[in-house]
Structures are given as C-alpha cells and as structure tokens.
Amino acid sequence: MPDLPAGGGRRPLVERVGMAAVAAFLAVLFGGVAAAAWLGGEVFLAAMGAIGCLMTLWVGALTLFRG
C-alpha cells in the first residue's frame, strides 16, 4: 500500500469527476422519484425524494470541488 500524507491528500481529478458523475446520476433518480411521487399525490414521499436529490447533489459538488 503506498504511503499517503497525514491529511490523506486530494483525490485525482479523474476520480473526483467520476464520483461526481455517479452522484449526479443518483440525484436524477431521486429527482425522478420526487416528481413521480408529487404527480401521484404523495407529498411526503415527494419531499423525501427532493431532499435526497439535493443532498446527493451537495455531496457530489463537495467531492468535485474539495476533493
């Protein structure tokens, strides 16, 4: 196993972009659940899906920009 700096260092750009892309895909799925639930009249499920979408986008952005 390679030696890592004490702070862990930044991830390579390719890895950060890949993880952000996975987060964006999952956010789209959460958004789809939120939209379908809203159209079906399930307000609580729609709210939970929207919150999941926003949280996933937030973590993806943090992964991409903070590393």
Helicity range = over 70%
**Bulk shape:** elongated
Described by strand count, sense and barrel closure, the largest sheet is: none
- Rg computed from alpha carbons, rounded to a whole number of angstroms: 16 Å
Q: Give me the strand/helix succession.
A: HH
Number of strands: 0
Q: Give the overall pLDDT as a whole number.
A: 90
Main structural class? mainly alpha
Quaternary structure classification: single chain
User: Count of DSSP helices?
Assistant: 2
- What are the segments in which pLDDT stays under 50 over at least 5 consecutive residues? none
Could you give the distance between the termini? 20 Å
Portion in strands: under 5%
What does this structure look like?
The protein has 67 residues and is mainly alpha-helical. It has a domain at 28-66. It is built from two helices and no strands. The chain has helices spanning 13-39, 43-66. α1 packs antiparallel against α2 (43-66). It starts with 12 loop residues before the first helix and ends with a helix. The mean pLDDT is 90.
